[in-house]
Amino acid sequence: MKHIEARIKTSFGEVVIEGENPQEILDMLGIIPEGFVEKLNDFVSNKLTQSGAQLKGIVEPTTEGPVIVTREKLTHYEAVGLILYASEEKKSTAAQVTKLLDSSGINAMVPARLNEMTKRGQIFKPDPNKPEFKLTIQGEKWIEEEVLSKLRGKMS
Fold it and tell me: Is the pTM value of this prediction over 0.85?
């Protein structure tokens, strides 16, 4: 079965609309709300800058995952929290956090820190059957309001 697609180039990439025939494409374009591309652009750029600019000079992305690059002194809790904060979906396994902290030059007892951070309400296990830990909303606020603002204050 044939189909056609319209590619709309935007500042963040492409929006692709597919249909069986030209009229279907026009119909789909007709139902897109006014300002859709602008809203999508804002959403994407906010997501990218939120993590990218906010963490610049503190955490850098690598092919392995986020690595802490700041030379400022961090507690092991802050280091674990930063790794989780910069990780995809703000979650990771204890083994992955340990590996990323090692790459960052930080030697921490990650399982013990994760256990204590769970008790503090900063992280949780989204699925008890999986070894992944995720920042809670409280944990995200702690990283943003305390840890990152402390680090940015020292960097400026």
Answer: no
